[in-house]
Amino acid sequence: MVKGVIMEKPTSNFHFKFMSFGFKFRDFFLPRINILKEVEIKPGFHVLDYGCGPGSYIIPLVELVGKSGKVYALDNHPLAIWRVQRIASRKQLSNVETICSDCETGLENGSIDVILLYDTYHGLTDPDVVLEELHRILKPNSILSFSDHHMKYDEIISKITKKNLFKLSRKGKGSYIFLKAS
Prior knowledge:
Elements: H1 13-29, H2 32-37, E1 46-50, H3 58-65, E2 70-75, H4 78-90, E3 96-100, E4 112-118, H5 127-137, E5 138-147, H6 153-161, E6 166-171, E7 176-180
């Protein structure tokens, strides 16, 4: 389901493969589970990895949500979706679903406990529309875990909270934890 034009044009396949190779080194030295632990994801949670890339967070997310939880992986790059599907198939992860989209998730209102928005925001052409979509699908008082190494602290806080959709709860070592505002 590709709708709207919100994210930049997907990167070339070469760039995506090069980026994915670099992530393997990053993930070896800085395991993604360490970032996810500060988000406090619980068994049974439904989590959306918005801008999932090559799927670095998928396996640790599945471990955290358990068999009763669900992991959605969204990206606008077909190779990202293919990689996540391949991970899920190889590891026999029946609770992983992929969404190929550049904005709309197709998920029900108030159906998600946690959204990861990591190193994606800076590439959005209309981030306010994306934040509205993320707000729509989050359950009340649920979490938007945000990180973007292309942005400074003040910029992150002002852009994520400017429409009063989210309020800063705390800053962790690896991400900012925002709560869905009413």
